[in-house]
Design a protein that fits this description.
By secondary structure, the chain is mostly helical. 70% of the residues lie in helices and 0% in strands. The chain has helices at residues 26-36, 48-51, 56-73, 78-105, 111-133, 137-173. Helix 3 packs antiparallel against helix 4, helix 4 runs antiparallel to helix 5 (111-133) and helix 5 (111-133) packs antiparallel against helix 6. Mean pLDDT is 85; it is low at 1-20. The protein binds fe (ii) ion (2 copies). Residues 99, 114, 118, 155, 159-160 line the site of one fe (ii) ion (FE2).
């Protein structure tokens, strides 16, 4: 799924999406997430101060990723979890594909290690999403809410921070 670069500029007016079809855009998914907020705490507290890397498209993507992970941690209904796992999977594929493009653009030296970490997590996510589809959403929810926050914290502050540095250096030279 393509990441919407204007996500944060869109109207905050409530969107009426059809539950039978599910949210159609990332923004509507975040609206679904907002409806669920209050049931429990966020598992990733994304903020510019803590996670901002100074590359806008990466920061936007990471904020969206955190919102989707939080929405899964706070969802209970199997149909909501199914919609949200699908959204997270699509979003994560787009997220990692775009970072691979950025790594190639700037000649990122640790591309193999960075892509291997993406492949490992995406594989885990695909396996757990498949379990959710087979009627076992609790294990998938536990993976997303208990494993992914720690993974994201370490990955964003090491590999993604290094990539952001590479992108900023490249863009300063242009
Ligand atoms: Fe990332
Ligand atoms: Fe990454």
């Amino acid at each position: 799924m393509a990441v919407d670069p204007h996500l944060h500029q869109q109207s905050l007016a409530p969107i009426r999406w059809h539950r039978s079809r599910g949210p159609q855009t990332t923004y509507q998914t975040l609206e679904l997430a907002r409806e669920m907020v209050g049931k429990s705490r966020n598992v990733i507290e994304w903020s510019q101060r803590v996670y901002g890397l100074g590359v806008e498209e990466m920061d936007t993507t990471h904020a969206e990723f955190a919102a989707l992970v939080n929405s899964i941690a706070q969802a209970d209904a199997p149909e909501d979890l199914h919609i949200l796992f699908t959204k997270l999977l699509d979003h994560t594929r787009g997220h990692f594909t775009r970072e691979s493009e950025l790594m190639r653009e700037c000649g990122f030296k640790a591309i193999d290690e960075h892509e291997a970490d993406h492949t490992r997590v995406l594989g885990d996510l695909e396996r757990f999403a498949a379990m959710a589809r087979r009627g076992m959403p609790d294990m998938a929810k536990a993976f997303v809410s208990e494993f992914l926050p720690g993974w994201f914290d370490a990955h964003a502050q090491t590999m993604d921070a290094a990539l952001a540095q590479c992108v900023k250096t490249l863009r300063r030279q242009r």
